[in-house]
Amino acid sequence: MEYLYKDSDGYVFMDKETYEQITLTEDNVGDLPLFLKENNTCQVTFYEGKPLSIDLPAQVELKVTETDPAIKGATAAAQYKPATLETGLKVTVPPHIATGDVIVVSTAEGGKYMGRAK
User: Fold this and answer.
1) Are the C-beta atoms of residues 10 and 51 closer than 8 Å to each other?
2) What is the predicted pLDDT for the residue at 88?
3) Which residues does 102 contact at the CB level (< 8 Å), separation at least 6?
4) Looking at the DSSP assignment, which residues form a beta bridge with residue 116?
5) For residue 82, what are the CA distances in angstroms to 11, 50, 51, 65, 113?
6) CB of 104 within 8 A of CB of 114?
7) DSSP per residue over 66-90, as a string?
8) What is the pLDDT along the chain (118 residues), one digit of tens a residue?
9) Whole-prediction pTM value?
10) Both ends of the chain: CA-CA distance in Å?
11) CB contact set of 68 (below 8 Å; sequence gap of 6+)
């Protein structure tokens, strides 16, 4: 299914084959919206017409909306710094990552930084 948007009722997904739309509540999605952008695809499993689970891709690309500037002369062994992504997810990133960069994070590892998006 494709994630479309969030409204006052919940999170709206569309079946990519039938174009049928369903709305899932916060209880159904849990922390997953921290990894979801509009038009992302995920696997929704249903049992007797009710959503049972939602599986995201192993990695997603998200834009950094806030992080400290890079420090000149920082070494490769420098400490990671906090960053906030476009969905509100907070992760730690290497010092060379700047606001506006698009990075790859692991959904399976709770948002672990995997690298810059290509």
Assistant:
1) no
2) 95
3) 61, 62, 63, 64, 116, 117
4) 103
5) 27, 37, 34, 11, 11
6) yes
7) EEPPPPTT--TTPPPEEEEETTS-E
8) 999 999 999 999 999 999 999 999 988 888 899 999 999 999 999 899 888 889 999 999 999 999 988 766 655 566 889 999 999 999 999 998 999 999 999 999 989 999 999 8
9) 0.84
10) 25
11) 81, 82
Half-sphere CA count of 11, side-chain side, radius 13 A: 25
Residue (of 61, 64, 118) closest to 96 by Cα position: 64
Measure the CA–CA gap between 66 and 31, rounded to whole angstroms. 20
d(CA 37, CA 75): 33
In sequence order, the 6+-apart residues with CB closer than 8 A to the CB of 113 are 80, 91, 92, 93, 94, 97, 103, 104, 105
Q: Do the Cβ atoms of 98 and 68 come closer than 8 Å?
A: no
Phi then psi dihedrals of residue 62, to 5 deg: -135, 150
